[in-house]
Amino acid sequence: MVEPDASAGLDRLFGDGTAVAAARVFAEVFAAGAKPVQSFKEVRAKVAALGGLAQRPRFLTTTAMAEPAYAAGLEIVLRWEHAYLAARIPVDSQGLHVVLLREGSRVQQSADPYAAALAALRTSGRD
Hints:
Elements: H1 4-14, H2 18-29, E1 37-39, H3 40-51, H4 61-65, H5 68-82, E2 86-91, E3 95-100, H6 102-108, H7 113-123
Antiparallel strand pairs: 1-3, 2-3
């Protein structure tokens, strides 16, 4: 069950639609100068920050997966994948990572990465 504060935070983050939320998180995670490979923890942290969610330190992967920011982060990354912006990859014992794809690199280097990400996400046919 999602905690009431977490539910309200996710409602705020996704309030303008999934594409808007995904574009906001993309622009934060892959800001100018960001490495093309990011830990999924970074995605979760940005989702939590933008949604105003408290993130508790988690040592076991399965307990981290129970956090609302984890599922929201996966939903956002799936949207990125659908628009060919970035894709998930498991990295041995280091967990899940997200790799910037060619379209994502073009968006990252644009004059307005948020607007470019939003356009790509909206034309991907999901929003």
